[in-house]
Design a protein that fits this description.
The protein has 13 helices and 27 strands. The chain is of the alpha/beta class and 565 residues long. Bound molecules: adenosine-5'-triphosphate and magnesium ion.
């Protein structure tokens, strides 16, 4: 299986399309759509659907519409409409023509509802929601007909028009399809097509309507009106397909799109339902929809995940009909392989320990030329200042260590990356016994080279004290401590599995001065530490904030091992 952008892996949906094209169905046209409800931000599950729908349109020379499924007025708003467009474009896609809204079809949908009434295929019911539920029956027992099911066409027309005119209260009446109260498929037991909603302001149509069409009625007709050929959705809609087809067979729409279902993406250590993500935001468990720990596209972007890595991920996981729970390691692998190629290297010390090089001339600064990428000369080089005082990471020093520790040990040597070999001569501690400074000596003959016969075990990174940028660094971990927080132990809900250590903030980190030019969101490798990017916000003290996108190696595999043992 390949996963690059130009050699996409095939899948069963593409096979269906290939067959349709071979049979000249739809006159060789391919038209898909991505239909989000604007009641939240998009998440990585939506990315799977976006890559699938827009990817098919690209590869088959077809079109993909962006259509907002906005039939549920009280949860939808323009903030989400804007955010969704931004996210789709950031992922690298452009929708066909204009942005579509299901609400643009409210008048047309109303006319189609009248058509069903005229054909004796829809009726106005006075049962309330609870009664409708009771009458619907169960999977084992057939439902029973509403006492209003036999209303005449004239009466239904009249009542439906008066529903629109606002003569009835919320819940007093609904319009239902007249299909089969004994159908083994519950979706065909006279599903509701319209309900009354007074006093809500729809983000597009304002207070023009007080009746709103249901999703199951709106969706197939919207697809048909837009000339969609393949209406791709997630598996939970498979049982709705007979209703989808029934509606299109019974109203005068220009075409009959084909609904095809695939399994939704589930990702370990996170939740994917918009309802739950909304709760995390509203209850302050995260900083917002774009919190870098969120599985939202906005969160992934802020975390520094490149759009190409997300597309690669969506290709790699494939499209099937089987339920799946994808390991976080798969996503991180896609991110790492993109960033390894594309992220320039910089030096940053996250836990600084000061080193004074006693035999280095005071006041001297050497501007060392350093490659931006070890394997890619086209990324050029930068200068890094070296001086008498540098920071190294606390973890790169030990007073005593065995041979496995290939960093700096008291009395021994180490190479400062891209610079000189130093030897630690003295360890300075405070009254509590903490190491606060090292006194070292450098060998001027070792700049950038490794003279023959000289064995230096380790190379560590460093930053010149006088030139360092002071920064805050945020290290993110999984948001939940359970691989499937939705399916935890009984009596516990997903929020009980929130990981209290999902964010670790390090202050007073020391960065090399070239990082002053970093742009918000641009991927950078902090050598030996991981991939990072500059955040759009600054810390309270004005210091820049860098978010860790991902570590250099797979830490998830280790977590899995721990969990399994
Ligand atoms: P949620 O259940 O999170 O509220 P939704 O399906 O109601 O999601 P929509 O805005 O209606 O959200 O989704 C738009 C499109 O994205 C739909 O076609 C839906 O099938 C698809 N989609 C949503 N979640 C996933 C997922 N986890 N994996 C793949 N596709 C998804
Ligand atoms: Mg939905």
């Amino acid at each position: 299986m390949t996963s690059s952008d130009d050699t996409r892996s095939s899948n069963f949906i593409r096979q269906v399309i290939d067959e349709d094209l071979a049979g000249n169905k739809n006159n060789g046209r391919v038209a898909t759509r991505f239909p989000p409800e604007p009641n939240g931000y998009l998440h990585i599950g939506h990315a799977k659907s976006i890559v699938l729908n827009f990817g098919i349109a690209q590869d088959y020379n077809g079109t993909c519409n962006l259509r907002f499924d906005d039939t549920n007025p009280h949860k939808e708003n323009d903030e989400f409409v804007e955010a969704i467009q931004k996210d789709v474009q950031w992922l690298g896609y452009q929708w066909h023509d204009k942005v579509y809204f299901a609400s643009n079809y409210f008048e047309a949908l109303y006319t189609f509802a009248l058509e069903l009434i005229d054909k004796g295929l829809a009726y106005v019911d006075d049962l309330n929601a609870e009664e409708i539920r009771e009458y619907r029956g169960t999977l084992k027992a057939a439902g029973k007909d509403s006492p209003h099911r036999q209303r005449s066409v004239e009466e239904n027309r009249d009542l439906f028009q008066r529903m629109r005119a606002g003569e009835f209260q919320d819940g007093e009446k609904v319009l239902r399809a007249k299909i089969d109260m004994a159908s083994p498929n519950m979706n065909l037991r006279d599903p509701t097509l319209y309900r009354i909603r007074h006093g809500v302001i729809h983000h597009q149509t304002g207070s023009e309507w007080c009746i709103y069409p249901m999703y199951d009625f709106t969706h197939p007709i919207s697809d048909a009106l837009e000339g969609i050929t393949h209406s791709i959705c997630t598996l939970e809609f498979a049982d709705h397909r007979p209703l989808y087809d029934w509606l299109l067979d019974n109203v005068s729409v220009p075409c009959h799109p084909q609904q095809i279902e695939f399994s939704r993406l589930n990702l370990q250590y996170t939740v994917m339902s918009k309802r739950k993500l909304t709760q995390l935001v509203d209850e302050g468990h995260v900083e917002g929809w774009d919190d870098p720990r969120m599985p939202s596209i906005a969160g992934l972007r802020r975390r520094g995940v490149p759009p190409a890595a997300l597309r690669d991920f969506c290709e790699r996981i494939g499209v099937t009909k089987s339920d799946n729970l994808v390991e976080m390691g798969v996503l991180e692998d896609c991110i790492r392989s993109d960033l390894n190629t594309n992220a320039p290297r910089r030096m940053a010390v996250l836990h600084p320990l000061k080193v004074v090089i006693e035999n280095y001339p005071e006041g001297l600064v050497e501007e060392l030329s350093v490659a931006n990428h070890p394997q890619d000369d086209s990324m050029g080089s930068r200068t890094v200042p070296f001086s008498r005082e540098v920071y190294i990471d606390v973890d790169d020093f030990r007073e005593e260590a065995n041979k496995k520790f290939k960093r700096l040990v008291a009395g021994q040597e180490v190479r400062l990356r891209n610079a000189y070999v130093i030897r630690c001569d003295e360890v300075i501690k405070n009254q509590q016994g903490d190491i606060i400074e090292l006194r070292c000596a450098y060998d001027p003959a070792t700049l950038g080279a490794n003279p023959e016969g000289r064995k230096v075990k380790g190379v560590i990174h460093w930053v010149s004290v006088a030139h360092a940028i002071n920064a805050e660094v945020r290290l993110y971990d999984r948001l939940f401590s359970h691989p499937s927080p939705d399916a935890g132990k009984e009596g516990r809900e997903y929020k009980d599995y929130l990981n209290p250590e999902s964010l670790r903030t390090l202050t007073h980190c020391k960065l090399e001065p070239a990082l002053r030019a970093a742009g918000v969101g641009e991927a950078i490798q902090f050598e030996r530490e991981g991939y990072f990017c500059l955040d759009s916000a600054s810390a309270a003290d004005g210091a820049p904030i860098f978010n860790r996108t991902v570590t250099l190696r797979d830490t998830w595999a280790k977590i899995e091992q721990e969990n399994n043992s």
